[in-house]
Write a structure and sequence with these properties.
The protein is mainly α. The chain has 14 helices and two strands; from the N terminus they run ααααααααααααβαβα. The protein has a two-stranded parallel sheet.
């Protein structure tokens, strides 16, 4: 949502010379990156594109400098407020070690999935969104508004996610892709010389066809209970549905004040059992990837 907020601020305020959109953009950008670092490249691109766009209109270097300073200032303030709990509780060093140092090593080992995950993503996208893939190249023919801007964001997002086997990261590119597709469809419908009523009919039919091609391949999931949906999504190699069963067993054989250690990367069990970890390593990735640990 913060990334979408940043994009919305740019779309609706790109010609606004006041500073409040830049303040809000700084806040949205920082929150987006702190929430998910994979938002870093798209966020930087939007801000840089916006600054360049604004400078081309105003031709004012001083104003450009002030806006850059505004972004830096309010980004740092937002980061400080977000991390204040750790700072004032003498936990920032631990935060830095676990969030920054460990994650840098964690991200580095993801290169082992290049380029295999790229082809895996492409296969998944084609199986479900083949019609969207076929429509996408039409953007370079019909040239809807900001088609190069959205195309670049799609490429940046895809470059960010294809090195990771974490399936839901594809969500990063979806808003930009849908905006591009919507622009193409709008351009096509505008070229059809019919009255407004027929145009609405064509638009509705187009949406029904596109949504049908996206929903039908995965329609099974909408009729599964939570356990079977979990198996459908993750298979039996990642039996997340067993976490609650394990947590219930932990509750029976331990006291609420007891601390436990889960010898695996399943921190949800701590939550389900309402037990604290005996170690700061509530996941075991630091022990199995190449880190200073």
């Amino acid at each position: 949502l913060p990334l979408i907020g940043l994009l919305s601020l740019f779309i609706y305020n790109k010609n606004n010379n006041k500073y409040w959109p830049w303040i809000l953009a700084s806040i949205c950008s920082t929150v987006a990156i702190l929430f998910k670092p994979i938002a870093l490249l798209p966020t930087f691109f939007i801000l840089i594109y916006w600054l360049i766009y604004n400078y081309k209109i105003n031709k004012n270097k001083l104003d450009l400098s002030k806006k850059i300073l505004t972004i830096i200032t309010f980004s740092l303030l937002t980061a400080f407020v977000s991390l204040a709990y750790f700072i004032f509780n003498n936990a920032f060093n631990s935060f830095w070690q676990q969030v920054i140092v460990f994650n840098s090593y964690y991200a580095a080992q993801m290169t082992q999935y290049i380029p295999s995950m790229f082809f895996d993503y492409m296969k998944r996208f084609w199986n479900v969104w083949w019609l969207l893939i076929l429509i996408t190249p039409l953007a370079f023919y019909f040239k809807p508004k900001k088609y190069l801007f959205y195309s670049t964001l799609i490429i940046i997002s895809l470059f960010t996610i294809f090195s990771s086997p974490i399936g839901h990261y594809y969500l990063l590119m979806i808003p930009f892709w849908l905006l591009l597709i919507s622009g193409v469809i709008t351009k096509i419908l505008n070229k059809i010389k019919v009255n407004n009523e027929w145009q609405r009919i064509f638009f509705t039919l187009t949406m029904v066809i596109i949504l049908s091609t996206m929903i039908l391949p995965i329609q099974e999931q909408y009729f599964l209970n939570p356990v079977n949906l979990n198996i459908w999504l993750y298979g039996t190699n990642n039996p997340f549905y067993e976490s609650q069963i394990i947590a219930d067993k932990i509750n029976k054989i331990s006291q609420p004040s007891d601390k436990i250690f889960i010898a695996g990367s399943e921190p949800q069990i701590y939550y389900y059992s309402q037990r604290l970890s005996v170690s700061k390593f509530d996941i075991t990735y630091p022990f199995i990837v190449n880190t200073p640990v």
